[in-house]
Known about the structure:
- By secondary structure, the protein is α+β, with helices and mostly antiparallel strands.
- It contains five helices and six strands; from the N terminus they run αααββββααββ.
- α1 packs antiparallel against α2 (38-61) and α4 packs antiparallel against α5.
- One of its GO terms (molecular function) is transcription coactivator activity.
Amino acid sequence: MEQLQAALIAITVLRSNVDRVFGIFLNDLHSGEQNKQVAYLQGLLSTVNMNLRNVVRKIKNLKPISHPLYLERMNNFNQQSAEKRQINYMMTTLTQFFGDMTISASKSVKSDISFDITLGYILKAVIIIRGMMIEWIVVKGYEESIDLWTQSRHKVFRKVTENALAAILHFDSVEYPELGVQSFMIWFHTLINLFIEPCKHCGLHLNKFSPPTWRDFHNGEAYHEEFIEKSVPDGASVGEN
């Protein structure tokens, strides 16, 4: 604490003398007598130079802060920065791999790690990622404005949002969180054929005026909601581990 106080005092002295230098310079500039106090100014500049060396010396004597709370916050900050870089790299790689899926930093949500996703001309989505895990997603139609607070006005995309939230829980992995995010994004890409892939069970594109909105977690096959239980042996849900 004494070393910190000494450094602060040295900085205060330096700032005071620098202010005096600029004060003299400005006064002489306005008065047209630039040479009037040259000798005094040179002496003051020497003092400033000495003050600066003193500040540098005091700062070098300071010991790094080792308070547990400070260290914890620094560790958390470094971890979050590393996670953000890792997630950004993953999303960039996925965008390059899937030519029909665009992933970019969200413009509608002010969050450290949020992304806008566009699947062809089919749909849009916004996701929030915290701690290398997907926290939330909202899916809407391609022509709709995207945000986290309002649902799609179309029933089909509200159902897709529900299924995507279920997929988040399915792929969530505490042990391998990065793999969980990547697996979800690959699964999400299967929705590119939302309106053209027939139901694996009934073979129809529409059932009760709705396309098959469910995608199997393992192979991405399309199912109408009504046929999920019927399409898997022993009554297990599609995509169940």
